[in-house]
Amino acid sequence: MRGLKPAYPLEAGERLRVTWCGHSYFVVEAGGLRVAMDPHDGDSLGLPRCRAQADLVLVSHDHYDHNAVELASGPRTRVVRWREGELSLGGLRVRGVRLSHDDKGGSMFGLVVAYVVEAEGLTLAHLSDVGESSDSAERVGRADIAVVPAGDVTTVSQEEAVRWAVRLGARLVLPAHYWVPGSNVPLDPLDRLLEAWRGRVERVSSNSVTVDAASLPQEPTLLVLEPPREPLRI
Known about the structure:
Elements lengths: L15 E5 L5 E5 L2 E5 L12 E2 L4 E4 L18 E4 L3 E5 L2 E9 L10 E9 L2 E5 L10 H4 L4 E5 L8 H11 L3 E5 L14 H6 L3 E5 L3 E4 L9 E5 L6 E2 L1
């Protein structure tokens, strides 16, 4: 797909780089800044470790598979834990929106904060472990890129994850938080989301892509990144 490439050092005209470190751990790079979201420690999940010297670490909630800030931190890293409201860092704008981890107002699994990152003319919404219905999508707002949980069990169903993506108006949808080979987390595999998704599907033979606003697909596209198979250092 035009505008989607394996991530290497950013070149002129390449706007935003998104790297998937497995599960819900994503690293976004734009404007010379690096943001890590929901880092895990690898070992606890049966996944490779991903170390990132991030400028900003965003943690959606205090569960072991989302809060390993030490894996993404350096001496000058700013760490934000489940914070609502707005903040900025350089050319990045971040907004946190509190949502339920389940469909019972958080009484089962608690609450999470979805983070909306705006940079380089693009908006990315990381929905973390959202469990409530997409009726709350207006609170998150529109997004060009949506990271949605795809493994069910402790989050929304795959059908509801698709509805979230649609209501956000996302043109790129990145599945996260699903079972991959080697993982010891009891989640559904990606197949269930693929069955629920009725639109275009693109697979990238890398765990990273670069995107710019001009080359976003016109048709909503489920973009499947390759899960990392060995330890990473970003």
